[in-house]
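Q: How would the structure tokens look for this protein?
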Amino acid sequence: MNLFTADIETPLGTFVGAVDAAGAVVALDFERDGRIARLPGTRVEPARLAALAEALRAYFAGTLRAFELPLAAPGTPFQQRVWRELVRIPYGETLGYAELARRIESPRAVRAVGRANATNPIPILVPCHRVIGADGSLTGFAGGLERKRALLELEARHAGRALQLDLVR
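A: Here is the predicted structure in token form.
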């Protein structure tokens, strides 16, 4: 598969994005030398990622609440179900892992939902940061809990909502 990558500067640091030949987003990584750079068949071509970079700029500016970019994240059928449901969590809102499992009609698969969340290759666009502990605590996020908190605070501020989290845990 031909993948095209580029660095994208954001308020949370440099991200690396990857799109396929059709322009669908395949991955977004928090680290400059992360997993995308190691994917076979990748070529650095920033022009191919212009739409992704612009969408991220608008998101961080608070003017974009729902991404409309084509997505093509590789994953198992279960992961795909979880990721499709993540996209349905409204901007500025959060959901617990158990509720997410219930919504995909797998109420006993809370741990599997957590693993699918952790392996989401397109964070922010597939908003795994919106999933929190049932008690309101911040739990697992590939980009670190500080970035997760920053994303939730950004969305809450632009959505005009109060962010209620247990940040001690």
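The CA atoms of residues 92 and 159 lie 6 Å apart.

The chain has two domains: 3-61, 77-159.

Upvote if useful.
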